[in-house]
Amino acid sequence: MEGVNVGSFNWSDLLALGPVDVMVVAGCVLLLSEVSLKKPERRYQPWLSAFFALLAFAWAWSQRNDPARDLFGGLARADALGSYAALLVTSALALTSLISYGYLREQASERGEFHALAHFAAAGMVLLVQVTDLLTLFVALEVMSLAIYALTAWLRATPRPAEAALKYFTLGSFASAIMLYGASLAYGAAGSTKLSDIAAAAQAGQSTGLLVLALVLLAAGFLFKVAAVPFHAWAPDVYDGAPTPVTGFMAAGVKVAAFGALLRVLYVAFGAQLFSAGGEGFKGWYPLISGVAIITMIGGNLLALAQRSVKRMLAYSSISHAGYLLAGVAAGAFDNVRAEAGEATLFYLFAYTATAIGAFAVVGMVERRGAGVDDDGRYEGLAQRHPGLALALTVFILSLAGIPPASGFAAKLFVFRAALDAGAVGLAVVGLLSSVAGLYYYLRVLVMIYMRPARADAAEIPASPGMSTAALVLVALVVLVTGVLPAPVQELARLAATLSP
Q1: What is the pLDDT at residue 328?
Q2: Domain residues for 307?
Q3: Which class for 480: exposed (0-12), middle (13-18), buried (19 or more C-beta within 10 A)?
């Protein structure tokens, strides 16, 4: 069909997608390992999954300084942003593989298919950031989403995961349809679904009305995936009902993929001025993104205040963090701080990825005696009953709250500074005030851990496998070290923030 990019194939382009290739192969190997299993012992599977994830991480690391180039005739792009996303996603995958073992064993749900689905989801996440064509973006989005839907429903013996997966699948299907409709409008305006062609049409003032509608619909799909207000209603029930290791992987990996793709679409395809707001010195999508950022920061924190379940509190907290990330994206609408804002947003993604994986890992270890059942009583006196878990959760809570020396403090500092440098003072002030409001529900968890006695009927917390404990310690150290020494991650984020058609 004229105007539709069907791409072209060569082996060098396939090798440039090395991390994706490794994870797809890993998924197939893990599926076959389950088929050929001769005894019920599956301890090797999380190690095998983590090995493949680290292999993909090493491949992405080797590509971080490679020059950017188009792949498959312009359907995808190998650049620093794709490598950065691959580093974050593969790290989250490796940690989830190790952390999930004890949880799945406790629920008698160890299967190779779990790790295979996680690898397929991660492959879709990385590919979503690398594609530069809206139709290919839709395919990558569905690869990621279908695997996440299945992981959400993994604990089939209980009704809550199935209910959560059904809600996620139903609403996610609507969001995907909205994005596809936006892609069709962009094609109608530009005669192509390539981001570079859409950018040229926007620059030329071609079919401005269609492009604005396409932008709104595409943004709505991304905002659903990151659980931004008013597209957030699915997140608390899905996060609460899914197996806790899946919740952590979902909270971290999906945000990396969706925000990475959103940055590419906004900064590349819609970098030109589409309507009159550009006379004020910013891109026309700034009012849309900044407005959603403000209501998401406020709404996420207010909703989290009323929660009495730590897991649901973290779910609502993830909504507020989507707002902080959107504030960084919105600041990039101003050309003079676009690089700074992109760097701040990508650093925030790193900090939140590590923190979310760690926080939900602790929740999973605490709740393993009753999967999906989480109340305050499990955390009261945790410092007395299990000081190691209490210390780890403290590190992650401090990071989520933006309290030094954890990396969450540096992440918020960079995002708010970018907003101030862009002149978006209102955005920065709302972010700062909502962060202060969020201290209440974060510190409430620490009060339960350290200042309340353990209940006499508190359920015993089973010992965690060594691999899970080691992964948890590693994540906590990463959160602390990068909070004190953020420069290495900043440098990677700075390279990744350099985008071009």
Answers
A1: 94
A2: 11-272+282-496
A3: middle
